[in-house]
User: Fold this.
Amino acid sequence: MLNCKEITEIASDYLDNNLDWRKRFSVRFHLFICEHCNRFVKHLELTIGAMRKKPRQSATEEEIRHIISNIPRQDES
Ligand SMILES: [Zn+2]
Assistant:
């Protein structure tokens, strides 16, 4: 059984899918029974999500559409 300290230590690995299924299961179970860690992981997830969104904003929607329109379509023959 994981304790709260262990959860906080592996929380980012959990969110990154870097844990094997046994550990993931242990984390999920702990989050299910522990409101404190549940909130901690949710907050961490939001923080990581916010950090990861920034670099993606360097490509605008217009640029992405431009790139997609330049990909040769294979289904047209
Ligand atoms: Zn806990």
The helical segments are 4-15, 21-33, 35-56, 61-69.
